[in-house]
Amino acid sequence: MKKIRCLIIEDEPIAQEIIETFIGRLPFLEWVAKTNNVFETYGELSRNTIDLIFATLKCRKSPGSNASNLYRNARLILHCQPH
């Protein structure tokens, strides 16, 4: 079975760890990379094929209101809330 390739966009280290643990528990998910800002995300999306993005609605280190224009390359996006 082909694994779903995942990218984590999260600026909180604890939240990154929680999402990584979740991905690691599901055999059909593969953690590819994690970033904590939009600039790193652009690089990862240009280097990797991403099927699923786990992202906060608004990273504090991101310019503008959100990074939704980055998501065109992913098939699925799961927005995470830290609270």
From TrEMBL:
Signal peptide positions on this chain: none
Gene3D superfamilies the record matches: 3.40.50.2300
Domain Response regulatory residue range list: 5-83
GO aspect biological process, one term: phosphorelay signal transduction system
InterPro entries associated with the record: CheY-like_superfamily, Sig_transdc_resp-reg_receiver
Protein name: Two-component response regulator
Species in which this protein is naturally found: Runella slithyformis (strain ATCC 29530 / DSM 19594 / LMG 11500 / NCIMB 11436 / LSU 4)
